[in-house]
Design brief:
The longest helix is centred in the middle third of the chain and has 14 residues. It is globular, with a radius of gyration of 19 Å. α1 runs parallel beside α5 and α6 packs across α7. The chain is built from 8 helices and 16 strands. The strands form 3 sheets. Strands 5, 6, 7, 8, 9, 10, 13, 14, 15 and 16 form a 10-stranded antiparallel β-sheet that branches. A 4-stranded parallel β-sheet has the order 2-1-3-4, sandwiched between helices. Strands 11-12 form a two-stranded antiparallel ribbon. Its cofactor is Mg(2+). One of its GO terms (cellular component) is plasma membrane. It comes from Jiangella ureilytica.
């Protein structure tokens, strides 16, 4: 079986020695090619070429951003009828690894490699659905408003040399919360599956699975019923008043998720359209992708197969 390993050399939790061990283990079972990423979007470029070359499997070694780029390389441009899309495998190497953890893939990269080798030898695969925001696929989340604003600010801190940590996200989230020009009345409008518009949103988080993310070892569930084999789920807030927002943040740690008059919750939707009169920050899988006044999100069932 021909395989490409797309390796992010800046992955925060995978040492050079660990990479050597896992690559050696994989090479015993696979006709292996290894490529390190050097710039944003490089994993997509590498994966797209591998798909054209007829590779059977692409192994993502890195964090959620690397997985997202690999997925987009596998599926964009859209496969033609009869075209075989390579399977994907994930060996976690980032700070959070949301999709991998939601699938039950071990955070330890050596253990994850062992699980992958067992899947390859037994032929074990699982099909999962994805989300798509305009022309970009996402595996576990997309967002507009405060959620994406925090990610944009964290990315700016990382470009200045800061290390991505839970503490950095918490400090940045607090700072950006109080920096919002309006916390009582939102401008984002949501329409789901051609239903009636829901106006006045300040933050909208769209998920493809649950948990949405992790605060260290603690899972956060704004959409506790989201499922990789169902449509898209939505969590939104129409107010960011301090006391109710703190309550909703606490509710993220529960099995039931947030609830209250400021909360908008939708489950298993096929199409979502979000509009705003002024550009709002947007993120997919934890990467800020720019400011938009309108985005369309769609559920893509059985989009790819994962070996694990």
């Amino acid at each position: 079986m021909r395989a490409l390993v797309v390796l992010n050399p800046n992955a925060t939790t995978t040492s050079v020695r660990t990479r050597d061990v896992l690559l050696s283990a994989l090479s015993n079972d696979l006709d292996l090619e290894v490529a390190e990423t050097t710039h944003r979007g490089h994993a997509t470029e590498l994966t797209r070429k591998a798909r054209t070359d007829g590779v059977d499997l692409v192994v993502s070694v890195g964090g959620d951003g690397t997985v997202n780029e690999v997925v987009n390389g596998l599926l964009e441009p859209a496969p033609v009828p009869g075209e075989k899309v390579p399977d994907i495998a994930i060996i976690p190497g980032g700070s959070t690894n949301v999709l991998a953890r939601n699938l039950g893939i071990p955070e330890n990269s050596i253990e994850a490699t062992g699980l992958l080798l067992d899947a390859l030898r037994s032929g074990r695969r699982q099909s999962i659905g994805l989300g798509r925001l305009d022309d970009r696929y996402f595996t576990f989340t997309a967002g507009i408003g405060l959620d994406a604003d925090v990610i944009q600010a964290v990315e700016a801190e990382r470009e200045r040399g800061r290390v991505s940590t839970v503490q950095l996200y918490i400090r940045t989230a607090i700072r950006r919360f109080f920096a919002q020009p309006e916390r009582r009345h939102g401008v984002i409008e949501l329409t789901a599956d051609d239903g009636l518009p829901i106006a006045g949103l300040l933050v909208v988080i769209i998920t493809n699975c649950t948990p949405w993310t992790y605060l260290g070892a603690r899972p956060l569930r704004p959409t506790p019923f989201a499922d990789l084999n169902a449509g898209l789920d939505v969590f939104g807030l129409t107010s960011l008043r301090l006391a109710p927002t703190l309550l909703h943040l606490a509710q993220l740690t529960t099995q039931r998720g947030p609830r209250g008059r400021d909360v908008v919750s939708l489950h298993d939707r096929s199409t979502l359209v979000l509009r705003a009169p002024t550009p709002q920050p947007v993120q997919v899988d934890g990467d800020y992708i720019g400011d938009r006044t309108e985005i369309t999100l769609t559920s893509v069932p059985d989009a790819l197969r994962i070996a694990y």
